[in-house]
Design goal:
six-stranded antiparallel sheet; about 130 residues; alpha+beta
Amino acid sequence: MFAADEASRGLGIELLERGEGTAVLRMTVTRSMVNGHGIAHGGYVFLLADSAFACACNSHGPTTVAAGADITFVTPAREGDVLVASAEERTRYGRSGLYDVTVRRGDEVVAEFRGRSRSIRSTRAEEPA
């Protein structure tokens, strides 16, 4: 799934690790990701966490999408910061799941993200429903 994720790869996001219900991704904050306050735009931090969530919840096989997500920004990131998002499955029940993602700069927590997933029929035209 990540190999076909043009949005994430286009921002330089790298998949470092993957496992059943887990994923670790990395992104460097670039100049184009900084807002008018001189800090990383929250949308980019959310996108990194969401991409880690997507890799973790799709690790089981069926096509899985976000049913909802929220994020708490703990401290700002700045241009040049290398952010690492670590996703971990908390529980799966039926077609639904719950995942937590921590975004860090080194040992410092930048944001905490919680995603809710739902397995669906495939959305890709070339995959059978």
